[in-house]
Amino acid sequence: MDMEKKGIFENDFCSTLPPHRNLQQKEMIYVGWDKPPEGWIKLNSDGACKGGGENSGCGGLFRSSDGIWLKGYIRKVGVCDALHAELWGMYLGLDMAWREHITQLIVESDSKTLIDMVTGSCMFSGAIPTLERRIHNLLTLDWHVQFHYTWREGKRCADWLTTFILSLDSFVVTRLEYPPSELHSFFFDDISRTCFPRHVQLVIEFSAGPLAFVQK
């Protein structure tokens, strides 16, 4: 009897919808920076541009499994779009990590497109960008590198560094051995595991078969 009722309910419910349809709604999640596992270093990289790409820059920072600041970097990159600024930020971070003999690295970015590019999840129809090729070359070396996606709220320190470099005129890589004083409040939030609300889209996919719920 229960199975019969379940079947009737599904048939009645699906009959009111087209064969394929997506419904979308938003839900609240809370996002914060997470410490890497013991023995690993976390790199949060970022890139941004303003003025239609006329003013672009990138930055990033390394932290230990205790959340301790290890080093940071910033650089202005001139005229480019946001994705290339993100590429610069990730490449400079990976190159610095290898030169510093880091052997286990977690790289976090809020650019899903960038992560798909460097992990081979999406392919280019034309020539591979030079920076992406350099990243691929670094990944063939003898070390362990993982790439994770995070929301912007999970990398507020890297976001601040990138915004900061846009106000400067230097086009050389600047290494930051200590966090800037203006960054201390963000850094404290991360250490204390403060989370921030974010609305994400929940996609409910309907088809002639079973219902599927997908969070995007």
Shape: globular
Supply the CATH superfamily name of the largest domain: Ribonuclease H-like superfamily/Ribonuclease H
Distance between the termini: 36 Å
Radius of gyration, Cα only, in angstroms? 21 Å
User: Beta-strand level of the residues, as a percent range?
Assistant: 25-35%
Q: How many separate domains?
A: 2
Report the top-level CATH class of the largest domain: Alpha Beta
Kindly name the structural category: alpha+beta
CATH topology descriptor of the largest domain = Nucleotidyltransferase, domain 5
Instruction: Please give the largest β-sheet.
Output: 6 strands, mixed
Q: Mean pLDDT score, rounded? A: 83
Number of strand segments:
9
Order of helices and strands: HEEEEHEHHEHEHEE
**CATH-scheme architecture of the largest domain:** 2-Layer Sandwich
Q: Any low-confidence stretches, pLDDT <50, length ≥5? A: 1-17
- Note the total helix count: 6
InterPro entries: RNase_H-like, RNase_H-like_dom_plant, RNaseH-like_sf, RNaseH_domain, RNaseH_sf
Protein name: Putative ribonuclease H-like domain-containing protein
Domain RNase H type-1: 44-162
GO molecular function: nucleic acid binding; RNA-DNA hybrid ribonuclease activity
